[in-house]
Amino acid sequence: MASRLLKRAGAIALGASIALTTAALPASATAIEILPIPRHDPDFAKFHEEGIEVKMSGHKDKDNWLGANLIALKVKEDGKTTGVKAYCVELPTPLENGTPLTEVPWGEHPNSGTKFKENADKINWILQNSYPVKDASVLSEATGKSVSKREAIAATQAAIWHFSDGADLDTTKDRDRQTNEDVKAVYAYLIGEKNVGIKEQPAPSLAITPKTQSGKPGDLIGPFEVSTTAGAVVLKADLPQGVTLVDAAGATLKTAAKGDASASADTKFEKVFVKVPEGAKDGQVSFSLQADAKLNSGRLFVSSDKNKKTQSLVVALPSQVTVKAEATASWKAEQVTTPPTTTSVSTSPSAPAPSSSNPSTPESSTPETSASPVPVAEKDELASTGASIFVPLLIGLGLLGAGAAAMIVMRRRKTA
User: Taking 70 as the threshold, does the pLDDT of residue 4 lie above it?
Assistant: First the structure.
C-alpha cells in the first residue's frame, strides 16, 4: 500500500533523479543537480520525514488516500551537497523519474488549471508558519491541540493542496479519531484568517558587472559592481606580484588562492577594484566570488521541458546553496610615439616653380650662382682675367710716338 501511494501526487519516488538548472540564479552560477536521498543513505533519516495519509475532496483522486510526506532531496552543486525538504504543489500529477526541473517565478507554474499562481503568497505563508520551519509544539500552541510531527506534516501538505489545487481535507473518514482532530485543527489554522500571505522571496544570487574591464599600470581598474543575496562572500584570485584587489575606499580585500577550498566567506563589499602598480608588465587577472546563499522556502521547481509533465515542487525548509561569479581585469602600458629625427641638408637655391597661370610676359629666370668664393681686387687693381690688355696699349703708344716724330722731321725739311 505504501509503495503504491509513493507514486501518487502526494509523494516523490525515491528513485527519481532531478537535475535542477536554476533559471532564477544568475547566468554565472553553475547548474544544480537535485537527487532524492535513497533509504540506505545515512542522510535519509535527517531529511525524509513521514507524515500520515489524508483524503482530499475536490479532485479526481478524491477516493484515494494520499501519502503526505516531507521528501528528502540532495542539492549537489560544485562538489558540495546540501539536504533539502520539499512539499508537493500539484495534484494529481506524479513525479516522473529523471525529468529535470527548473526554478521559475511563481507566475510561471506550467499547469493552466492550477490555483498556485493566485495563491502562491498563501502557500508561502504556510511554509513559513508550519512544520518544519516551525516546530510541532508551535502548532500545538496555536491550535490548542497536542500535535505530533507526523500530524503537522499531513496538515501542512493538505493546506498547500487546498491553495494549489482547490482541494479540501476530507474528514468524514479517518484512521484515528484523535489524529483526525489534530490534523483538522492545524489545517484550519493554516488556511484561516491569520494567513495573510508572504510575497515571493529573492532567489539566491551572486553577480559581478561588468565581466571585463581594462586599464594601464598605475590605475585602479574598476569598479566591478557586486550584488548578492548572501551575507558574505569568498574572494579568490591568483594575483601577479604587486597587484591587489581593493574596495571603494582603497582598502585591500582579503583574497584567497583559487585552489583554496578552506577559505571562509567573511567579506562583504559592493565594489571591487584591481590595483596595478606603476611600471607593471602588460597582463591580466581573473578573480572569482563565491558565497553560500539562502535558498528560501517557497522556491518553485517545475519541469524544464513543457512537453514532459512532472510533479511541481516547492521548497519546504530554507537551505544554503553555493553561488559563483567571475570577472577579468587587464592592463597595458600606453605606447609613446617618438617623432623621427630629421637632418638639415644645405641645397642650392633653385628657380621658382613656374606659375600655373599664363602671364602676359615671360618671367626671366635667375641664373644659378656658383657657391665658390669670388676673389676681390685690392685697391684700384682690376681683376686679371684672360690675356693682359697692357701689351697692345704700349704698342699703340709707341706707334703714336713714332708718327709724331716723323711729322716733326718733315716740317723741318720744308723750312730748311
Answer: no
Q: In the chain, what are the domains?
A: 2-202+295-322 (no CATH), 206-294+325-331 (2.60.40)
Least confident residue range of 87-91, 274-278, 307-311: 307-311
Dihedral sign from CA coordinates of 35, 8, 312, 186: negative
> How many other CB atoms are there within 10 angstroms of residue 55's CB atom?
20
142 or 59: whose pLDDT is higher?
142
User: Which is more confidently placed, 238 or 9?
Assistant: 238
- Distance between CA atoms of residues 82 and 75, nearest Å: 5
- Mean pLDDT score, 352-369: 48
List, in order, residues 6 or more apart from 257 with CB less than 8 Å away.
236, 237, 238
How far out from the chain centre does Cα 27 lie? 8
Provide CB contacts within 8 A for 86, sequence distance 6+: 12, 70, 71, 73, 301, 313, 314, 315, 316
* 236, three cell numbers: 579568490
Q: Does residue 20 contact residue 104 with C-beta atoms inside 8 Å?
A: no
Does the pTM surpass 0.90? The reply is: no
Helix (H) or strand (E) holding 141: helix 136-143
Residue 166: closest CA among 67, 87, 57: 57
In order, the DSSP letters of 351-386 are PPPPPSS--SSPPPPPPPPPSSPPP---TTPPP--S
Q: What is the mean pLDDT of residues 71-78?
A: 71
